[in-house]
């Protein structure tokens, strides 16, 4: 199966039947004809049964071995190993029942997060909105208000890309927010799209809505804190440091004070 994630090509083969059907359903808007060389080409297989009960599934229980030439991600339900040409082997443990699909998605996201660095992009723990033809993201940990921000933005006329995980890709003079079929608590009609990234925001609860500058050093630290799967490689992967530096250099970074109200949208449209 080939997918076009708004300009980022992904190929997945060897999928178990149930997982293939679920992926075709959930990622239907991104199914694409085969391309010559995808950013990530994944061969899926089944391995040994997982130790312990499948009920212990935890998508955050992942360990990574990261370097600029190869990466490996392991969790109890499976693993993925990726090389610097974008070839990957993904092994799912057998006997994990309904957890198989979610383990597959988690491992695919990890592989993509690492491969995006090779093209100067990033997977960011953030919510994304599109307003006035431009993208804006709110980066923050779980419970920081991303879902509230997304819901209120939609109520004010913006479109939600995701309220939890977004993909950023470099383009001339800056970055683009990409439409991608990544997890979102808020219901989203996933679709392809590339929107110029107008700002990276960091949340602060309060009223009235306000934007405040963020120092480059603090902005870099907060971006790194919201880079899932790859942040621990900061001290040994020049690509990761370069991506973070370019994001701060090319995209305005601001702290956004907002309440459960869409009034903050006027500030974003004026950026």
Describe the overall structure.
The protein is an alpha+beta fold. It has two domains: about 1-120, no CATH class; about 125-270, Rossmann fold (3-Layer(aba) Sandwich), CATH 3.40.50. It is built from six helices and 16 strands. Strands 8, 9, 10, 11, 12, 13, 14, 15 and 16 form a nine-stranded mixed β-sheet that branches. Strands 1-2-3-7-6-5-4 form a seven-stranded mixed β-sheet, with helices on one face. α4 packs across α5. The radius of gyration is 18 Å and the shape is globular. About 40% of the residues are buried.
Summarize the structure.
Helices cover 24% and strands 35% of the residues. It is of the alpha+beta class.
List keywords for this structure.
alpha+beta; 16 strands; 35% strand; Rossmann fold; nine-stranded mixed β-sheet
Principal-axis shape: globular
The N- to C-terminal Cα distance equals 40 Å
Question: Strand share of the residues?
Answer: 25-35%
Poorly predicted regions: none
């Amino acid at each position: 199966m080939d997918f076009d994630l708004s300009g980022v090509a992904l190929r997945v083969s060897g999928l178990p039947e149930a997982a293939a059907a679920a992926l075709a359903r959930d990622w239907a808007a991104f199914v694409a004809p085969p391309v010559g060389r995808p950013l990530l080409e994944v061969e899926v297989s089944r391995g040994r049964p997982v130790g312990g009960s499948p009920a212990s599934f935890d998508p955050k229980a992942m360990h990574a071995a990261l370097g600029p030439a190869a990466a490996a991600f392991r969790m109890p339900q499976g693993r993925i190993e990726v090389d610097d040409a974008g070839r990957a082997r993904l092994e799912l443990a057998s006997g994990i029942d309904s957890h198989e699909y979610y383990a597959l998605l988690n491992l695919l996201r990890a592989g993509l997060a690492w491969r995006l660095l090779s093209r100067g992009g990033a997977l960011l723990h953030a919510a994304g909105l599109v307003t006035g033809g431009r993208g804006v993201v709110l980066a923050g940990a779980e419970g920081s208000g991303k879902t509230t921000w997304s819901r209120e933005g939609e109520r004010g006329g913006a479109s939600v890309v995701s309220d939890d995980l977004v993909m950023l890709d470099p383009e001339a003079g800056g970055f683009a927010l990409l439409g991608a079929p990544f997890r979102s608590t808020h219901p989203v009609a996933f679709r392809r799209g590339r929107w110029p990234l107008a700002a990276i925001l960091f949340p602060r609860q309060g009223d009235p809505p306000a934007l405040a500058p963020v120092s480059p050093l603090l902005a870099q630290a907060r971006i790194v804190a919201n880079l899932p799967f790859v942040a621990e490689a900061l001290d040994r992967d020049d690509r990761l440091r370069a991506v973070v530096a370019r994001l701060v250099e090319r995209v305005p970074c601001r702290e956004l004070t907002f309440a459960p109200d869409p009034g903050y949208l006027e500030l974003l449209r004026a950026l």
